C-alpha cells in the first residue's frame, strides 16, 4: 500500500502539492490588502457625460461639496462648507477641425434645488435658470448668464442653450446643443442620483471620517478654480 501511495501515502495529491509549490508570493500581499480596512475616498475620480454635436458640445460632470473640520465640547465634527453642484460645460468646435475649444468653455452650475426643477417641470415646458449680479447698493440685479432648456419643435428632445447679455444674435445657436430624449433621460437620471452627494448626506452616513481626502476640505482659495464651480456657478 505504501508503494502504491508513494511517500505521501494514499491520500497525497500530487496536483495540490504542485499548486502549493508554485503559489505566487504576491498572493500574500493580495490577502493582506483584502484584510486591510477599506476606504471609500482617496484619489479624485473624474467622470462626465458628454453630448457632441457638429457645432457645440455639452459635458456634464459633478463637483464635490467642500467640508470643514470643526471642534466642539463634544469633540471633532465635520460640516458642509459649500454644497456641490452639477456642472454643465459648453464648448464650441474649432473651425475646420474635429476638436472642441474647452479652454474657452462656458460653465453653468446647477444646485440640488435646481435639479428638482428638472424633476417637476412637465414634459414640453421650458426651464430657465439665471445667475445675476447684485448692484453695489443692493437695489437691483443684472443678468450674468442664463441656461435655457427648451423642447424641440418635433418633441424628439430638448435644446440646452447658454446665453449671456453680451451675446450677438448669431451666437445663440453657437452655444446650443440639441439633446435627444434618450440622452436627456440619462442626463436627468445622473443629476437626480447626485443630489444626496451634492448636499453631503452620503458623507454624514460615512463611519470613517478619517477617509476624507484633503481635496474635499475647505481651502483659502475655495471656489476659485480646480474643483470649484459649486453652488452659485
The CATH class of the domain at 49-121 and 174-216, by name, is Mainly Beta
In N-to-C order, the SSE pattern is: HHHEEEEEEHEEEEHH
Total beta-strand segments: 10
Cα shape? globular
The unreliable regions are 1-9, 11-21, 36-42, 220-232
Proportion of beta-strand residues = 25-35%
CATH architecture of the domain at 49-121 and 174-216: Roll
What does the largest sheet look like? 4 strands, antiparallel
What does this protein structure show overall?
Helix 4 runs antiparallel to helix 5. The protein is globular, with a radius of gyration of 27 Å. Helices cover 23% and strands 30% of the residues. Strands 1-2-5-6 form a four-stranded antiparallel sheet. The chain has a domain at 49-121 and 174-216: Roll (Transcriptional Co-activator pc4, Chain A), CATH 2.30.31.10. The chain has helices spanning 2-5, 14-21, 26-35, 112-120, 181-199, 201-204, and strands at 49-52, 56-63, 66-72, 75-82, 85-92, 106-110, 127-134, 141-151, 157-163, 176-180. It has 233 residues and is an alpha+beta fold.
Amino acid at each position: 500500500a505504501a508503494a502504491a501511495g508513494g511517500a505521501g501515502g494514499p491520500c497525497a495529491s500530487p496536483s495540490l502539492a504542485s499548486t502549493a509549490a508554485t503559489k505566487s508570493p504576491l498572493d500574500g500581499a493580495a490577502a493582506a490588502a483584502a484584510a486591510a480596512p477599506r476606504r471609500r475616498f482617496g484619489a479624485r475620480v473624474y467622470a462626465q457625460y458628454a453630448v457632441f454635436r457638429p457645432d457645440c458640445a455639452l459635458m456634464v460632470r459633478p463637483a464635490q461639496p467642500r467640508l470643514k473640520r470643526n471642534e466642539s465640547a463634544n469633540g471633532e465634527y465635520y460640516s458642509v462648507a459649500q454644497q456641490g453642484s452639477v456642472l454643465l460645460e459648453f464648448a464650441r468646435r474649432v473651425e475646420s477641425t474635429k476638436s472642441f475649444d474647452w479652454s474657452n468653455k462656458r460653465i453653468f452650475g446647477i444646485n440640488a434645488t435646481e435639479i428638482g426643477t428638472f424633476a417637476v417641470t412637465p414634459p414640453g415646458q421650458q426651464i430657465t435658470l439665471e445667475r445675476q449680479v447684485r448692484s453695489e447698493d443692493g437695489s437691483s440685479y443684472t443678468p450674468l448668464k442664463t441656461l435655457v432648456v427648451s423642447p424641440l419643435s418635433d418633441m424628439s428632445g430638448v435644446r440646452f442653450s447658454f446665453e449671456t447679455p453680451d451675446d450677438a444674435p448669431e451666437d445663440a445657436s453657437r452655444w446650443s446643443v440639441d439633446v435627444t430624449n434618450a440622452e436627456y433621460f440619462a442626463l436627468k437620471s445622473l443629476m437626480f442620483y447626485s443630489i444626496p452627494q451634492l448636499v453631503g448626506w452620503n458623507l454624514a452616513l460615512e463611519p470613517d471620517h478619517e477617509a476624507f481626502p484633503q481635496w474635499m476640505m475647505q481651502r483659502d482659495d475655495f471656489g476659485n478654480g480646480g474643483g470649484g464651480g459649486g453652488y452659485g456657478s
